[in-house]
Amino acid sequence: MDRRLYGTLVAAPVVAVGLYAYYLKYRTKNRLFFMLNVPIERAVAPGRWRLVGLLVRVRNFIYRNTIQDRLWNYIEARSEVGNADSVLAAFDDYCYNYEWTWAIGDKKAVILAKVVQEAKPKMMLELGTFLGYSAIIIAQNMPSDGKLITVEAYPKSAEIARKIINRAGYGDKVTVINAFSYDVIPNLHHDYDVETLDMVFLDHFMAGYVADLKRLEKGGYLHNGSVAFADNVRGEGSKGFSEYIRSSGHYECQFYEADNGYTEGMSDGMERGIFKGADMFSGETLGL
Fold first, then answer.
1. Where are the beta strands (DSSP E) in the chain?
2. What is the C-alpha separation between 146 and 121, in angstroms, rounded?
3. At what angle do helices 67-78 and 49-63 cross, to 10 degrees?
4. Cα dihedral value 63, 134, 213, 241, nearest 10
5. How far is CA 73 from CA 8, 90, 163, 176, in A?
6. How much is the pLDDT for 33?
7. 169 to each of 110, 122, 137, how far by Cα in Å?
8. Among 246, 200, 206, which residue's Cα sits nearest to residue 226?
9. What integer pLDDT is reported at residue 28 of this predicted model?
10. Dihedral of the CA atoms 14, 16, 17, 21 (nearest 10)?
11. Structure confidence at residue 34 (pLDDT)
């Protein structure tokens, strides 16, 4: 290969990132430039999560903070304390007009709300809090005496999620745990006084969906009628989830078509499984 061509191919991505960083720094003074960022991210988001992550890290470097901080500052300035709808509206506005995030977004929230309303969970587990958007939707739609335990592995996200959930008025109803799901699940009985779960929402590390669901089954946390509900079931890492619950014989399943959060035409899906196999796992535990 010609050396000049090779040099161009190597340098082009570096130059592109540098220009993008300069543009990000400039756009803070110009809303037009700020708004142009969203279609760029929506264009690269489908199937290109690593590139999206790179863009986030570039912004973090330029602004000397994190996307979690930027979103929280925006919500704090544009929402009312104790008004969950205003918190969600500010969250949506930021993600549609400023920075795309991995939150489920307002479209999938409609499906999640419907599933929670039908399940009526008194005790619920969420795996993958991120910044608390889905936790607020769950808290709004579960029974008034319901409790949600939500698990987030990344410390910064757990910290900001607590702030956002508290601002929405659900700090007493929602417990945010900063830990890995595989460490929390075996200790739900001992550490969090959980006997069984009426519903679990899986929206964390997609490759861990099946393993964590099996941990819940074998730990005796699911009763007949418990709902296992998962996001991003069309993602490369989570394909095994739908295959498992549909073929296991333990679940009554329903698939929900949905666009990915804050995108247009990025097809995704959510899947619900109503557990029917409690008798199969009644004698098994996880060393409890």
1. 123-127, 147-152, 174-178, 197-202, 222-230, 251-259, 267-275
2. 6
3. 70
4. -80
5. 40, 10, 11, 20
6. 43
7. 20, 18, 12
8. 200
9. 46
10. 140
11. 47
Q: Residue 269 corresponds to which amino acid? A: G
**Nearest residue to 216 via CA among 118, 166, 149:** 149
Residue bearing tokens 């264009």: 43
Asked whether the beta carbons of 235 and 206 are under 8 A apart, the reply is yes
Q: Which residues of the chain have pLDDT under 70?
A: 1-54, 235-239, 265, 281-288
At 56-94, the pLDDT tens digits run 777 777 778 899 999 999 999 999 999 999 999 999 999
Confidence at residue 104, expressed as pLDDT on a 0 to 100 scale: 93
Cβ within 8 Å of residue 115, ≥6 positions away: 199, 227, 229, 272
Which has the closest alpha carbon to 204: 280, 128, 122? 128
Residue 131 CB neighbour total at 10 angstroms:
28
For residue 21, give the amino acid letter: A
pLDDT tens for each residue of 28-60: 444 444 454 555 555 545 555 566 666 777 777
The tokens describing 222, both together, are 């699911």
- Amino acid identity of residue 117, one-letter, is Q
Q: Which strand ranges, in their side-by-side order, compose the sheet holding 174-178?
A: 174-178, 147-152, 123-127, 197-202, 222-230, 267-275, 251-259
* Euclidean distance between CA atoms 124 and 130, whole angstroms: 17
Kindly list the distances between the CA atom of residue 231 and the CA atoms of 173, 219, 240, 255, 268, in Å, as whole numbers in the listed order.
Answer: 22, 22, 13, 10, 8
Name, in order, each residue with C-beta under 8 angstroms of 19's C-beta and a sequence gap of 6 or more: none
